[in-house]
Amino acid sequence: MPKKISEEQPEPKGLVFNIERFCVHDGPGIRTLVFLKGCPLSCWWCANPEGMNVRPQVAFFPDRCIGCGNCVNVCPENAALGSQEAGISYVIERCRHCAECVEACPSRARILYGKQMSVGEVFEEIEKDRPFYRRSHGGVTLSGGEPLLQKIFSRSLLKHCAENNLHTAVETSGQADWETVCRTFESADIILFDFKHIHPLKHLKFTGSNNLQILDNLRRLDEAGRPMILRVPVIPEFNASGEEMVAMAQFAAGLKQAHSCHLLPYHAFADVKYRCLGMRSRLPSLESPPNELMEEFKNIWIDAGVETQIGG
Amino acid sequence: MTSRTERLRSRLYRNPPEICLERARLYTDSWIETEGRPLVVRRAMALAKVLKEMTTYIEEEELVVGNHASRAFSVPLFPEFSASWMADEMDSFKERPQDAFVLRDEDRDGLLQIVESWRGKTHFDRVMGNIEHSLPAELAEVFDKEGLHINQVYHAVISTTDGDGHVILDFEQVLSLGFEGLAQKARETRQSLDPTLAQNIRKRIFLKAVIIACDAAADFGRRYEALARNLAAQCTSEERRKELDDIALVCNRVAAGPAETFREALQSVWFAFLLSQIESNGHSMSLGRFDQYLYPYYERDIEDQRITREEARELVECFWIKTAELNKLRNWRSTRFKTGYPMFQTLTLGGQTIEGLDAVNDLSHLCLEATADLKLIAPTVVARIHPGTPEDFLLACCRANLTHGGGLPGLFNDQTAIPCLLNMGIPMEDARNWAVVGCAEMAVPGKSCSMTGGGGYFSLLKLLEITLNGGTNPSTGICLCPEKKDLSTFQSYEDLGRAYQRQVDYYLKFMPMCANAVSSAYAEGTPTPLLSAMMTHRIETGVDHSEGGGPNYNDTQVQFHNTANLGNALAALKKLVFEEKLISGTELKDVMASNFGGPRGEEVRQMLLNRAPKFGNDDDTVDLITRQAVNWFVKGVKKFKPIRGGVYGPTLQTLTSNVPEGEFIGATPDGRRAGEPTSDNASPTAGTDLSGITAAVKSVAKLEHEQHPNGTLFNLKIHPSMIEGEGGMAKFAALIRTFFELGGMQMQFTLVSAETLKEAQAFPERHPDLVVKVAGYSALFTMLERTFQDQLIARTEHRL
Ligand code: SF4
Ligand code: SF4
User: pTM higher than 0.95, yes or no?
Assistant: First the structure.
């Protein structure tokens, strides 16, 4: 029996936009990823745009729409328009994301990203794959969005999982005050820390925030002896140059502990999602960094003395 | 691969498969000459004539010798099993879209003559006669003689036109006695049978046939000895001459007596295996525990430095290539159920010893290496996994899968298979010695006379369609078991469930009726004395394999098809029609009758697809319905006992029949359109398991696998990027171990390559469930835009 969640307080709820099973690139073993909605940064290359906004969001996937018109009939805001003949459209500006149309849509052409879930509810989902975690030394990874933005929920969920003998990991941008980082990740066995750029201004331009607090948190987690993996997105026009990689690798090599590094090549697979959410990708359809370049970068990191692999 | 095996391999498919009339001619001639003699003796004499006169060849560079037809990958014909279709289909063999064969122009008349002389006298004719004369008249009348089914629910197609096959010989016996030793054993047994006793007459006749057949087999080996000597005499290369001399020596030794060396043992196994196929025409003749019965020879030769590991591996590769040379012509109907020239020559590795200790040895690893390297479709290498299987062996299986890409080795779970066999009353020592026959059937080598095909299959989804239509099959108009209610009048889900069960009970009885008719036809017309001699106990009991009976173990296979569709359909009816009442029974019935036409047709279909739970997502509300529905059938067949003794052994395997089978099933409540394929094997319906691999694995594990002694198959498609690297391999292994820990029986993988991705790009409808993992999230490949698909294709190629 899983242990009970503390009885005194009401169970914290979190806004979850996806729970994905059988993830093998986000921490050791076979894992379940819990995606929390909302992020303090807005990186140009974000692969999970549905996780950026802190509120629930409805997306419309025209490819799956059969034109039945149910959404048009139920929408209180006139944000779903059209007919079978004329085609169905979605006026994002009017939408209040009430999700009435999601309920009414038979074909999953309308998807609601962001559902309020209690720690217990999320845990129930996580618990389903325990036999796989046991065999593969896997567990749960909190991702997003940014788990730090839902700090009470993240902290309770991690704690609850740890108390129930699950291996816990978080994937984080590290953007929060030190106190929050410390408390939220108290029960995390390993932290997958996004290390995006060494230069504060470039970081500011491409993510909406400088990296001073982030790098500070990185250093302090390191000093506190917390196990980490550095996750480096390799983004053309942002950090995909030898010079930038050298600077980052040197920074990493200067940390107290030896953390391994995962170089994650940019891809544009999220473009469809951007469109369906009515959002605009800031880096539409760039080429992924070629494999040879990735190998080159990997060698830079290895030469600096950091254990490095391409991919998670 | 060595350079030799690489060349042998590349020559393998250089010619299109041809039809070779030689066996059919020789067999037919003999049949005419021996008229009037006892049947089993005639069979032995016909075999002897074939073996004596058929073309034998030794290919350039071959080390393991012995051919099936006059050219590699060509097919011998077996007109004694069925013939008329050969005349009917002869003009289309070459053009048919799948599994085409070439019939040479000069052979057309010969083939027609052969067909003519067998008209009315084949196994197929006996099957039809048995059905016609044993079934109650009103049922015999509804038996569809073209399609071989009863109202499209029970299909008796499988063993009506071909040999039975589906056995593993007692290779240990063959290795220790040789063919002359077997003949000698038969002679001694025969001498000990008092000819004045009534029960001995048939046995003495049978053993006479065994002696003829075994002597012929020994002579067959000697023909290769002579051929090798001849070739050696003409050979200009010193090296090849030496090889041919060795071949001659090896053939001489195994013809006469026990094998001594690893090489002799391999050759002996090949002859035994090949000859059983020339005699019996069965597919799914399997090779059993190859790494176990050959290991003593291997170990001794390595120890005595008579052979190096590399030499042994080359011999094993030569053996693999020989299995890939075997082929079979099937009629068009059977072909559609088994596409891709399959022979189902399964070879089992690993597992446990009869004492329950781990059985993996160096030969097991060597066989895996050969399999991964050669990337052939035969032999079908599978591995038995148990909790004590060393991790390095499981990892080697995973790596072999990744290299092979096309699903070898498949993996089986000892922890489910052994209880399954114990359930059938097989003692522990034998149960631990099990091996796979054909696709997934569990057998004790030498001891199981599994009658795999005789049982036919049930179309579970068709039966639901019939239930929803008040007992009438809309495509045939036939109503055999009328229901008072139909979908528009069922009051509750329980109401529907009861009606379905009534239909199940009604239709189940056709299985024993037809299976017994098929089984008796084999015993009446096509005994197999050579194969029998190579099985355990048959010489001692003096009874042909085809008659079944103890002390051998017997089971007759019965297949249940479209399980996932049935579960999904029932769950959708339960939730949407009876609980939430979002669709009325009447509306659904109308909408399905018009194949989801009409103004609300597509909307209803989308609701069925998206608003009801689907098997394969770890959702008990549908998984347990599926399990229960399958169990209605499993429980039902237990009441019956097959004519050959033993039990009816259920299985959830469908081969490729899910495509043709779907063609005659109308629109169904799982959202499937009329005519679309049904689900394959025990797998979730394609494109509906969307909650990740672990969820699919858990759903499938919820079925009661230990109730299916003829196996359950679970096809899993995984993108190689998910398991690449050593870390990935460990996760792959953990996935397999967990499935087995949860009670699963078998899993096999398609680790899709860039090629597949390209195909998926061109034909997205064929790959709706292909998941690709992209660092942060997963996506359905076919949902990605073309440019991104291109990117992924490029990347995958690099990663592999
Ligand atoms: S979420 Fe609400 S407001 Fe937005 S389109 Fe749907 S029904 Fe209309
Ligand atoms: S309800 Fe769904 S399928 Fe119907 S028109 Fe709206 S988006 Fe399209």
Answer: no
